[in-house]
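We include this case.
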Amino acid sequence: MRADQPGTPGPTAAGALSGIVVADFGRVLAGPYMTMLLADLGADVIKIERPGSGDDTRAWGPPFADGEATYFLGVNRNKRSVALDLTDPDGLATARAIVDRADVLVENFRPGTMEKLGLGYEDVRTTNPGLVYCSVTGFGTEGGARLPGYDLLVQAMGGLMSVTGEPGGQGTKAGVALVDVITGLHAGMGVLAALRHRERTGEGQRVEVSLLSSLLSALTNQAAAHLGAGVVPRAMGNRHPSIAPYEVFEARDRPLVLAVGNDRQFRVLCERLGLPGLAEDPRFATNSARVAHRDELVTALAGPLGTRNADGWFEELTAAGVPCGPINDLAAAFDLADRLGLAPRVPESAAGPGQVAHPVRLGATPPAYRSAPPRLGAHTEGVLASLGRTEDRAAGAP
């Protein structure tokens, strides 16, 4: 179902992925986040939802905007919603017709669900051999197939909570569903790689990514410390296991982060704090020494840092090349992005209220915001008409 097919309302902008059609069976966050990014880049994403309720996140509120949960709105712009009952033969047949004309299929049901519906990869590749079939799971399709793929569960079982929070605490989750987001990014990269392979060979393939494997990959230095040196990292609050000073200090009015990454930056910091001899002290002359004597270092720095406001230190130390900054709330963070010219918001006239812009800038084929997140089933009639089917016969809706 190409985007320029007569009777199929698709993207109008010549985005990098213009002409790519995605059959999106994804729900909640990882899958929908990935397909929204593809849609921003020009793909025609057909979001297939349950009649009556749709994606679970449509009910995940408050807060709500325009009658829709902001959780749903945040990851579903630029898509077309088709309501299909996959337990009804006509609804399932319509879903199969959409898949047969798609370039990409995305699903994050429990392993085995799509196969039971007759929409598994081996089922659909017979009629659409060029299809890129992307499956997102929580713990893979073998031993972990029965485990539910909830972000909090994966943060706990995948080790992230063990290195997040205060020392000796029970472990703390990240403030957003970070594992879902990371998994969506990995899934998107896999889909793009598979599309490039298809461009060269004409062959589709299956793309699989799990929340657990994505998290373990994202643990980077902590995972390398364990695999390479046998270390089992623990939570250190806002401190870094391998760098110092790299943590939060109290300025006179509010907290301030220092992120000193090398010895030169440390020497400049000491000069600006009126502690020039500190950088020559054998306990602090190198990063390894500073990590070993972190407590003494923090005590030496805390006094001078507490004599001025955070904004004053931010201006002076940043100008001197020392990485630092205050802890902003989201309002201040978006204000900062605005001042830096990053345009972090999508114009409300383009995609509805409260949309964060696509983070990638492309000179020739920039992301485009064609439509707001769809109302449930808003595009069912148009998509079914393009397939030569009627809503009553094909949607399977009560």
About this structure: DSSP finds 17 helices and eleven strands in the chain. The CA atoms of residues 356 and 383 lie 28 Å apart. The longest strand covers residues 44-49.
